[in-house]
Amino acid sequence: LQMSGFIFIPLKKTHEVDLIKPFNTYINTVYETKEDDKAEIEDAVQELNKLRGKACCQPLDKHQSGLDLLTRYYDQLVAIENKIIISATQNPVVFKWQDAFDKGGLFFSKASLSLSDGAFERAAVLFNVGAFMTQVAALQPLLTDEELKATAGLFQKAAGVFYKLRDSVHSLVPHDATPDLCPDTLSACGAIALAQAQEAIYIKARKDKMKPAALVKIGAQAADFYSEAQKAISKDTVKGLFEKENYYMIVGKAFAYQAIAQYHGAEEHAESHHIGMQLSRLNEAMKLADQSRKYLAPSILAEQLAAIPKAHAAAKKDNDFIYHERVPDVTTLPALPKAAVAKALPVTHPISPRFKDMFSSVVPVQVHNAMQSYEARKGDLVGMQTMRMREATQLMNGILASLNLPAALDDVSSTETLPESIKLKSAKVKQSGGVTELHRLFNDLPALYKRNEEIIDEAARLLKEEESSDNNLRAQFGARWTRMSSQQLTGPLLQELGKYRGILATASNADKMVKTKFEQNREGIELLSRAESELRSSIPSQQPHATGGGSESVRRLKELCATVAETIAERDRLEKELKDKNCDIAGDFLKALADSSLLNEEQISKEKIEQIYGPHVARVNESLNKQEGLLADIQRTNTMFCAEKSNTGGGAERERILKMLATAHDAFLELKGNLEEGTKFYNDLTPILVRLQQKISDFSFARQTEKEDLMRQVQQNIVAGDAGTGSAPAAAAAAAPPRPPPPRTTSAAGSAPSMQQPSVEPPIAPPRTTAPQYSAPPPQQQYQQQQPQQNPYNPAYQQSPQQQQMLHPTPQMGQPMPPPYYQQQMPYGQPQPFQQNYYQPQYNPSIAAPYPTFPGAYSANYQQPQYSPYPPQPQYGQAPPPPGQAPSAPPPNNNLNPFQ
């Protein structure tokens, strides 16, 4: 038993939660991690899961090592606050925490709150950090200076923790919190810790034999702090949470330290030989000491209080026999000065001095989203410039093909029926597989489309069956069917399915566009795919021309065609440079986030893009501007060339076929690229749809398991309600059938806690409604054997790690513009798995892009469980308040702190 009688705050209790699968799934879904980082992150997740079990679910040694575990876990929670989001709609991990002060009752288990919210977990763990600080402080023997310093420091830190929670709990726990997380309760805990910190400082000062002038200030402030603590725990919202012994301890110490302060004030008067004022203060100290003994155990502050009657007897004897001074009324004396040496120390991150973030390789979500937006903006620019160049090249090739260039130039310089340019085009087509390859790619598309469509249909069927089952049971049980409706939970999943149906529909239209273009160019592609002899025989032989190959127009056209080829090659190089250009912008975003809590992603991204891609955009513009003059020269020179040629009927047919073959060559390359891109699109979409189907399948399984569990509970409630029809207690029992009470556990009231944690709580059935459920604990014989049972599939409360991430889809990121096809916009878009549309690129392309457009990101508002107020706490007798305090004097300087 401590002679000081320090009070400690009990810990909140929780249950094991598997963080491994939901965290790994979330990280793999949201972040694009490298293989090396992925293994490191998976190890970090496992370590975090173990750390939570040790810090929150296992008994902690009442020592600094136990506190280090708690603070390390809390620091890690703060470090991942902006990296791994935990909420009902993203990465739902349900944390269930019991009220620290509730001991349960005959019919009800301990009050608890279950939320899928990382902020709630941080608030609960921070409460335990403060509570455990009071427990470690209360265990200090107070024999050495180091122990006294540790006690005062821990109590001051605990006060800071509770006051921080008091000021922020409404933002951390927006729902109706358990009583231990209410602002009034937290304020009371902070007041108690602060008063005990001041008391520890007084004990140190008295041990160091400081002068009465200093002791009176420290003691008077300790009395004032205890009076504030008494007021805090006497509020209606807090009354009943603390044990009566703790309440009496606070009231008794308020009286005791008033008496001690008066005693030291009397010592000051004795030094100045004011015997009358000395006796007046000692008389008051005697009365206050007598009041304190009504509440304190005899061992508490026994030495300090015992000195008061001795000093009173000696002073009275001296005054009676020697001084004969008049004893003034104590109310006429100056108020005792006070010095608040103990301060509530602010909570800084990290709390643990040797903390190291296990997820240092993961950037905050805000930075990650900014990087995604930057990539989208960059993709827009690269895609736009690439499309501009390809459209210009397509236009240029089309004009050349319409003019039968450069094949017409071959005719004037050669008598060969098959021009060299057409021969090269045919060889290129045959090398790429020819028309047979196009047929193969076309034949693969329907099966790929159907495979993806079947996955979506199966996922939709699972959701429809689950909703139908839920609606039937809701109609059957009525108000007793208290779980969240399927409509509240499946909206985002249905929206995601609709999004992918839209993507498939757009892809199907793109398939038809490609098929139409193939039919338009089938004849020319088939000719180019034949053997050279067959191709030659299909082209009419050339007729004699009026000009040879050495005219000025022919020479100029050859130069212009060479310039066209050079321009196309330059654009290919420029396109490759645009795609290969990389920049690590994460450092810029991290620096901006460190400088300011607001991250101006748009400004930073635009400045970086302009810096990196500005010169390339200028080169693109220059190339496009040159093309206008180049095409004008080609058309003007070709007019001269045509006027020089002899034009016969056979020559016209030959020119038509050569133009068709040139156009077919360009169409073949374009179609082959389109079909390959379409095949890749469908193959990339399949694993995304499989993951979505698995998510929906797991969700349906979770709801099925939850349904079976809730049906059993509803049937038990119906039986319990029928047994007690017509009485209010029976109605209450319907929600929680009475069972034998749990074994009684005790908590120290006026002494330090034991070195071992009390036994774990009995298994608690998880809540099933949006109000707190106070179900009865299991029979006593199972108390030590049965592990905590939780429903792992209730979406509003506990879920298994296999289901944590399955209840709500991960938000979608805006799709960056994919690169267009060679000489034509691409008809397929690359599916982007599970990203969020934080930024949607906006631009106005010169032609409509036929890509399958991912529908806009969605946001679903889930109705969070609303918790009704807790039942009133039991009342106990109100102790008489301490007498009024004298007015506070200005605080002295810091040299009163015995630890400095």
UniProtKB/TrEMBL annotation:
CC per GO annotation: endosome
Regions of compositional bias (Low complexity) in chain numbering: 725-736, 781-815, 822-845, 857-867
Pfam families found in the cross-reference section: ALIX_LYPXL_bnd (PF13949), BRO1 (PF03097)
Pro residues: bias regions: 868-893
Residues in coiled coil: 557-584
Region (Disordered): 532-553, 722-900
Identification of the protein by name: BRO1 domain-containing protein
